Amino acid sequence: MPAFTFEKISPPVGQGPSATAPARPQGVISQMIDRFAEKRAKSAARETGGTDKPAE
After folding, report:
1. Number of neighbouring beta carbons within 10 Å of residue 50
2. Residue 33 pLDDT
3. C-alpha span between 21 and 36 (Å, rounded)
4. pTM of the prediction?
5. How does pLDDT run across 34-54, given as a tens digit for each residue?
6. What is the distance, to the nearest Å, from the Cα of residue 5 to the centroid of all Cα atoms in its chain?
7. What's the angle, vertex CA 14, arms to CA 13 and CA 19, rounded to 5?
8. Disulfide check for 41: which of 14, 25, 49, 54 has CB 3.0–4.6 Å away?
9. For residue 17, what is the enclosing H or E element?
10. Going by C-beta distance under 8 Å and a sequence separation of 6 or more, which residues neighbour residue 54?
11. Whole-angstrom distance, CA of residue 33 vs CA of residue 22
């Protein structure tokens, strides 16, 4: 006979639509990386003779 047993607990039943997490503002590091990537894309486009706008 085991010294202890595990009780199966069912997850709570949802009463309504689950709320998604609110969008958090970007951190400083993420903004810096975005700026560097944008500048690099622009300089690469100029070298290849493309447009200044990055492809979306």
Report:
1. 13
2. 92
3. 28
4. 0.40
5. 999 999 999 888 888 765 555
6. 40
7. 150
8. 54
9. none
10. 38, 41, 42, 45
11. 23
Q: What's the confidence (pLDDT) of residue 39?
A: 93
Please answer whether residues 54 and 45 qualify as being in contact, where contact means their C-beta atoms are separated by less than 8 angstroms.
yes
Strands (E), 1-56: none
Separation of CA 47 from chain center: 31
Classify residue 30 as exposed, middle or buried by CB count within 10 Å of its CB (0-12, 13-18, 19+): exposed
Cα–Cα–Cα angle for 14, 16, 22, rounded to 5 degrees: 100
How is residue 41 written in tokens?
């894309």
Task: Map residue 16 onto helix, strand or coil.
Answer: coil
Average pLDDT over residues 18-30: 74
